[in-house]
Amino acid sequence: MENSSKRAKIMLSVSMAIFGTLGLFTRFIPLSSGELALYRAILAAALILVYLAVTKQKIDLKGIRRDIPLLLASGVAMGINWILLFQAYRYTTISAATLSYYFAPVIVTVASPLLFREKLTAKQILCFCMSTLGLVMIIGINNLTRGGSDLIGILFGLGAAVFYTTVILLNKFIKNVAGIHRTLLQFFAAIIILIPYVGVTDGVNLASLSGIGWACLLIVGLVHTGVTYCMYFFALKDLPGQEAAILSYIDPLVAVIVSVLVLGESMTILQFIGGVLILGFTLWNEKNA
Questions:
Q1: What is the mean pLDDT of residues 208-227?
Q2: Better pLDDT: 77 or 266
Q3: What is the per-residue burial (b if ≥16 Cβ within 10 Å, else e) of 205-226?
Q4: Is the Cβ–Cβ distance between 115 and 169 less than 8 Å?
Q5: What is the 3 state secondary structure string of the chain?
Q6: pTM of this prediction exceeds 0.85
Q7: Cα separation of 91 and 148, whole Å?
Q8: Fewer CB within 10 Å, N- or C-terminus of the chain?
């Protein structure tokens, strides 16, 4: 039991570290955000189908009928979430985009009393206020008053956080499909909505990709999404929810390191403190929740 828990911690930590490098690889894929999201979903779904076939896992098609509307809705929200996140990467630094995206747990905390009649505790209110202060510090007063590409990117990141929150909240109502099967069906739903979206916007531009672009696209679809999701759900089976939540914060930490040290993107002291406030107080909110 102890070995399986240790292995699960390593797998989850590795998967979160991999996901933290997502923004780096998207920098080298000259495709629209919608097209990139579509190929990401297709590649990840194909890999998960292979994984399920190898492990001889079957999807209970009869059992999921009641959850089909929710699966479709959550898949659509996932697709929009990816588009907005990729747009955030294009307009601002990876660190600012990722930290604004990690405002999602705060949104969940605020939405839960409205949807599930849960009462906000004094601790949750404090965490919400301090995380919001952190977000304002990341945006910066100048950006708030003057606008600019950084503000647009952060707003895209917040939009992505809203739709990621939607996926989380919808998943709470899905009762008959669990784990990686649910994610696969959500990928299919995302593909269904993204195909017409790409068709009416920028269309298919795969021919414009260089060798590096193709390599990065395959890595984003197969590794960052397919492999990472498989590792994530495999690890969740042997980890308490709180411990998994804590390890998930490896993702934004790696993203900030990649942004500042690898890509040389600027990050002010105020933005750094804002990031600490968001991650610190959302993490504290999840502990003993």
A1: 94
A2: 77
A3: eeeebeeeeeebbebbbbbbbb
A4: yes
A5: CHHHHHHHHHHHHHHHHHHCCHHHHHCCCCCCHHHHHHHHHHHHHHHHHHHHHHCCCCCCCCCCHHHHHHHHHHHHHHHHHHHHHHHHHHHCCHHHHHHHHCCHHHHHHHHHHHHHCCCCCHHHHHHHHHHHHHHHHHHCHHHHHHCCHHHHHHHHHHHHHHHHHHHHHHHCCCCCCCHHHHHHHHHHHHHHHHHHHHHHCCCCCHHHCCHHHHHHHHHHHHHHHHHHHHHHHHHHCCCCHHHHHHHCCHHHHHHHHHHHHHCCCCCCHHHHHHHHHHHHHHHHHHCCC
A6: yes
A7: 9
A8: N
In the predicted model, is pLDDT for residue 146 greater than 60?
A: no
Which residue matches tokens 């590409």?
Answer: 149
Give the domain ranges of the chain: 2-286
pLDDT for res 189: 92
pLDDT in tens, 237-275: 777 766 777 788 888 889 999 998 999 988 888 888 988
